[in-house]
Write a structure and sequence with these properties.
The structure holds 2 protein chains of 2 kinds. Chain A has 5 helices and 12 strands. Chain A is an alpha+beta fold. In chain A, the strands form 2 sheets. Chain A has a 6-stranded antiparallel barrel with strand order 1-2-5-4-3-12. A 6-stranded antiparallel β-barrel of chain A has the order 6-7-8-11-10-9. Classes of the chains: A alpha+beta, B mainly alpha.
């Protein structure tokens, strides 16, 4: 150890080198998006770390799940049975309605909707960076996950797949500041864009005219425009509407229906056959939102 | 870096990386200390010939991949903070542990502000005061990490 006399390059030179490297990385990663494939590899490289970091929590939940009293289990079982009966009844009704719907659609010669394939995923780790809202799940390219795949929990849309690794992948949440999702109001079909605000319980709707018929409590569902999210899944509920005539547009906030801060199990939806087709035309919902913003900004 | 039990340094850094991504409840998560920064600063003070700016940058880069931020953001901030330590390590070494803790607080604040500034530059994030909560926990944590890592260094005779 010889701390008095510096050997090799001086710290200042190293700093300059390193700052130059980061500037180049930031430029290529953010502006050119040229690291998409490399990111996949890096994601798979660090996934052991993520699995290890998740191990203590998993052990805790394992212990908590194993140490339950019998009565509790019986009670739960009872509840599940009742639920199953209930859902079974609904399912019977649904299959009839579906058949009827398909028949009507074929009568109208509009295309019959495809069955959506679903995949189950568990959350692996939560991003601790406050500037972006992302989570990591335990499914990757090996399970057929692809970029842009919609993710939902039992209540509604959670987000979409951002980077795919071999055995884990990263989900960007709808509340992330760089994310936007096309929605429509379930009550009257008005189309909006829900952009993330960076706050977990708020989505912002920009460029909505004052005359639009929106009330607090309206449910917003995916509109299926943009081609990324399938149509009709609940996204958020309007919590704040202000039509201040002195402003150009109405101020509208909504709260995600999915419990984004309490995620554990999630569903990935995938289109049965046309994976490739569906990913290419809708490169990015955020992009389309940006272009809409740009258009609206000009007018 | 690997001579004289140098792999222990790598091990502590890996543990720090894991600690910075373990899932936590949302209320505690805002107070998560900068584990990687603390450990890096300790090794920079103790063994500046082994751990330097390049190490810090690589750690920041791995953190970028783990956190899913734009590559280079955390790397840049980490390198800047560690640069200050590397240049002044002989002064900082002579301070008492609590004085050091305050300096680490300033470094941590700088780290978070650089990260925020870069993110602000890339996307329109807004500043919330709770982005600086980790500074408090980092200050509190420093003496303990310092004592622990010193013991580790002496026990394994890392030179």
């Amino acid at each position: 150890m010889n701390p008095i006399f510096n050997q090799g390059t001086s710290p200042a030179h190293r700093l300059i080198l390193v700052l130059f490297c980061s500037a180049a990385l930031i430029f290529f990663d953010h502006k050119m998006a040229s690291f998409e494939t490399a990111r996949g590899y890096l994601q798979s490289l660090v996934s052991p770390l993520q699995y290890m970091a998740n191990a203590p929590k998993q052990m805790m939940t394992w212990a908590a799940e194993n140490i339950v009293i019998r009565q509790q289990l019986m009670k739960e079982n009872q509840a599940f049975r009742e639920n199953e009966l209930f859902f079974h009844e609904q399912g019977m009704q649904l299959s009839m309605v579906r058949q009827e719907n398909e028949r009507l659609r074929s009568l109208l010669s509009s295309p019959v909707r495809d069955e959506i394939k679903k995949m189950f995923a568990e959350i692996l780790s939560v991003d601790s960076d406050p500037y972006s809202h992302q989570v990591v799940i335990n499914r990757g390219a090996n399970d057929g996950v692809y970029e842009g795949q919609p993710v939902l929990d039992e209540k509604g849309i959670v987000g979409q797949i951002l980077h795919v690794g071999v055995s884990s992948s990263r989900v960007i949440l709808i509340s992330d500041i760089s994310h936007a999702i096309p929605v429509r109001i379930q009550r009257n079909g008005i189309r909006l864009i829900a952009s993330g605000s960076g706050q977990i319980d708020r989505l912002i709707h920009n460029f909505v005219p004052h005359s639009a018929d929106i009330k607090e409590g309206d449910l917003l569902v995916t509109s299926g425009l943009g081609g990324k999210y399938p149509e009709g899944y609940p996204v958020s509920r309007v919590v704040f509407v202000r039509t201040d005539e002195s402003r150009e547009f109405a101020t509208i906030y909504s709260k995600p229906v999915a419990q984004i801060d309490r995620l554990r199990y999630m569903l990935l939806l995938s289109k049965e056959e046309s994976n490739k087709q569906s990913t290419s035309p809708s490169v990015n919902d955020a992009n389309s939102a940006k272009s809409i913003k740009a258009i609206a900004g000009k007018s | 870096m690997f001579s004289n039990n140098g792999f222990i340094i790598l091990l502590t850094l890996l543990i720090a990386l894991m600690a910075s991504i373990t899932p936590m409840p949302l209320s505690v998560d805002a107070f998560r200390p900068d584990w990687v920064l603390i450990v890096l600063v300790y090794w920079c003070l103790a063994l500046p010939n082994k751990v330097n700016i390049i190490t810090a940058w690589v750690m920041g880069f791995i953190l970028d991949v783990l956190l899913g931020s734009v590559l280079g953001v955390h790397a840049c901030a980490m390198a800047l903070s560690v640069y200050i330590v590397v240049v002044n390590f002989q002064k900082i070494r002579n301070f008492s542990v609590w004085q050091q803790a305050l300096i680490i607080g300033v470094l941590s604040a700088q780290y978070h502000l650089v990260v925020f500034w870069l993110q602000r530059f890339l996307s329109d994030v807004v500043f919330l005061p709770n982005y600086l909560y980790p500074v408090l926990t980092t200050i509190v944590l420093w003496p303990w990490v310092f004592l622990l890592l010193r013991r580790v260094r002496r026990h394994f005779r890392i030179k």
